[in-house]
Amino acid sequence: QPRNPGSPRSAGVVVIGNEILSGKVQDVNARHICKELHSRGFKVTSVEVVPDEIEVIAASVRRASEACDLVFTTGGLGPTHDDLTMEGVAAAFGCPLVEDPRFLRMLGEHLGKGTSVTDEGLAAASTAQHKMAQVPEGSKMEWPPDGNPWPLVSMRNVYIFVGMPSEFQSMFARAAADGRFDGALQWTTAALQLDAAEVDILTSLSDTVKTFPKVTIGSYPSEDHREMSSSAWCCRLTITFESLDAEQVVKARQHLVDSLPANLLKPEAAEAADTEVA
Fold it and tell me: Is residue 4 part of a domain?
């Protein structure tokens, strides 16, 4: 349940990895989870990208946990020296790491398949398994039914996800299947396409924003592709409207339409708004 009745459930996302901050790897997990949570009625209030440093991870997780209903971390769960998410989450809540016996056994069965039979290979695999089986004391372990060795680990209101996008998406879908991430409220959205620059509609847009404070209104310019089309009209600006109150969305859109010259509107845009629940 949301901590503020009548408001959407809130979420914070913590993306962990030096490779993201250095630009070596492009993050796709934050975008995916923001879309998933938004479609379920959440309001994502923060996305923070932090380096592989225990103290920084801990501070970010602690802030998000205190401010949001749920927190989702991604990345930093591998066997190498820079995989420090479990340590960071444990530090955030002032608890030690403990080795989970089932996790250790599952990792042994999985990692052992591709392990070199040399003494060095076996030793490295054993070290990796023991490191990866460490979880914050008191955390909850949820095991996938398909034999996948990686459980969904959660600590209080923090869900700890892997960084590999395909596995991340699979883990989220598996966890969300029981409805735990569904919100009681749903967003209603609408859009308005205009052949205009932002400066052309600034007064009307500002008035609409002031008149409808419960509607989040966004303005997104796009390139003029008029030369690529035979049409005299070209979408250069998209205005979006979003609220938990569907009626307010419709009224806000129409208010802006009524205040603009007809030549700026897409031919059918002056008609009733097409709204959708998102």
Answer: no
The verdict on residue 141 lying in a domain is yes
Radius of gyration (Cα) for the chain, nearest Å? Answer: 24
For residue 267, name the pLDDT band (cuts at 50, 70, 90).
Answer: confident
Q: How far is 121 from 113, CA to CA, in rounded Å?
A: 12
From the list 82, 75, 45, 51, the residue with the least C-alpha distance to 63 is 45
Tokens representing 244 are 């938990």
- Report the pLDDT value the prediction gives residue 268, as an integer from 0 to 100: 66
One domain, residues 45 and 160: yes
Domain termination site, one of 125, 156, 176: 176
pLDDT above 80: residue 263: yes
Alpha carbon distance 246, 183 (integer Å): 16
Largest CA distance in the chain: 77
- If asked whether residues 210 and 248 sit together in one domain, one would say yes
Token duo for residue 53: 């440093």
Total domains in the fold of the chain:
2
Provide the H-helix boundaries in 133-201: 165-176
pLDDT one-digit tens code per residue, 165-184? 999 999 999 999 999 999 88
